[in-house]
Amino acid sequence: PTAYRNHVFCLPDSDLSMRTLSTPSPALIFPPNSPGFQNGRGSSTSSSSVTGETVAMVHSPPPTRLTHPLIRLASKHQKEQANIDRLPDHSIIQIFSFLPTNQLCRCARVCRRWYNLAWDPRLWRTIRLTGETINVDRALKVLTRRLCQDTPNVCLMLETVTVSGCRRLTDRGLYTIAQCCPELRRLEVSGCYNISNEAVFDVVSLCPNLEHLDVSGCSKVTCISLTREASIKLSPLHGKQISIRYLDMTDCFVLEDEGLHTIAAHCTQLTHLYLRRCVRITDEGLRYLMIYCTSIKELSVSDCRFVSDFGMREIAKLESRLRYLSIAHCSRITDVGIRYIAKYCSKLRYLNARGCEGITDHGVEYLAKNCTKLKSLDIGKCPLVSDTGLEFLALNCFNLKRLSLKSCESITGQGLQIVAANCFDLQMLNVQDCEVSVDALRFVKRHCKRCIIEHTNPAFF
């Protein structure tokens, strides 16, 4: 008991110890059987055996030196100053900057000096929490309370919160962030499927500087909008008040055209939008998007099976602003859609059209002749693309660095040789499941020395 007089272990349903300590410091995040949750002999404390879930620990600043009777017998060598203690404060802070949030909180428990350094405001511009067992709601509450100590109820230094794959993050945790972190600029909650629209609305309404939002895998999120209260205050210009530029809604399966319409109307400054596997999106949703969001540079509608050539006609309205486009596995897209993109989006740098089986050599020809600055192209699993299409690429796209032809049944070694003889900067070539000879692969290697070739030919090394 003497050794733990200054430490209080708090389960998620108790706030008593937090109210009794003037400067609480959460030591996140110790599962019951981890080394950081054990006493000096390596056995678990009594508190860790109460429950099988992760708990938050709140403690006072560590004493300057330990006074446990068993430690008084330390040898002279043990009393000597450790090498790391000889480092100046700024060096230790630099080391701490590379640690995730839970490890940084552990460092705060080592000694008084480390406690003071670990809570340096420069280290708390970012909070990163990962893991399925972490009680994220509790952790965010404790952390923000500690970070708001000098500025009550407001955490001015926190700019980034990354919580990935934490199934125990709920709306309560996002409410905490929204209310305490008005300077938040980046929020990533990918794979946290328990959060809903209401909590996301609160974040975007109360954090006016938010620019980067990742809600990929959050299946309950159907749109991005301001709360009703915020909309009333900002009306009629509230649609231009959300400053989000980067939005990732990958695997938000229930997102529909109407939700995309709402997003477009409220997030007019979008430059990066990812809608991978949003299977309910159609060409109509893309039409809404192009009305409001005219600054998009990167767009992904991969696996959106209802997107067709009409959707490509809408996307082509972005013209030279579009640099990145992914339409992988959109089986309704043909040469017609590719022609729209090639004609109007001349500055396209990246195109992923894997699995678009309606694309032929004619589509590749349009693309090669109009998008001459193309650097990355994936036309894998396009069985109608042959050596003729590769020849158009080789004679027009000299800056090509990455080319994927995986499972292109009509490709031969002759087409690869033409590409290698003209695209000297090629760095990656995927010809898996293609009928190409070893001699052709060797030819590519001789002419493109920095090229990494992915293949399935066991005779080529």
UniProtKB/TrEMBL annotation:
Its main location: cytoplasm. One of its GO terms (cellular component) is SCF ubiquitin ligase complex. Signal peptide: none annotated. GO terms for biological process: cell division; protein polyubiquitination; SCF-dependent proteasomal ubiquitin-dependent protein catabolic process. Pathway: Protein modification; protein ubiquitination. Keywords: Cell cycle, Cell division, Cytoplasm, Cytoskeleton, Leucine-rich repeat, Mitosis, Repeat, Ubl conjugation pathway. Residues 81-127 form the F-box domain. It is found in: Cytoplasm, Cytoskeleton, Microtubule organizing center, Centrosome. It comes from the Eukaryota. InterPro entries: F-box-like_dom_sf (IPR036047), F-box_dom (IPR001810), FBXL15_LRR (IPR057207), Leu-rich_rpt_Cys-con_subtyp (IPR006553), LRR_dom_sf (IPR032675). Residues 31-61 are annotated as: Disordered. Part of the SCF (SKP1-CUL1-F-box) E3 ubiquitin-protein ligase complex SCF(FBXL7) composed of CUL1, SKP1, RBX1 and FBXL7. Interacts with AURKA; interaction takes place during mitosis but not in interphase. Interacts with BIRC5; this interaction allows BIRC5 to be polyubiquitinated by the SCF(FBXL7) E3 ubiquitin-protein ligase complex. Substrate recognition component of a SCF (SKP1-CUL1-F-box protein) E3 ubiquitin-protein ligase complex. During mitosis, it mediates the ubiquitination and subsequent proteasomal degradation of AURKA, causing mitotic arrest. It also regulates mitochondrial function by mediating the ubiquitination and proteasomal degradation of the apoptosis inhibitor BIRC5. Belongs to the FBXL7 family. This is F-box/LRR-repeat protein 7. It comes from Bucorvus abyssinicus (Northern ground-hornbill). The lineage of its organism: Eukaryota, Metazoa, Chordata, Craniata, Vertebrata. The gene is Fbxl7.
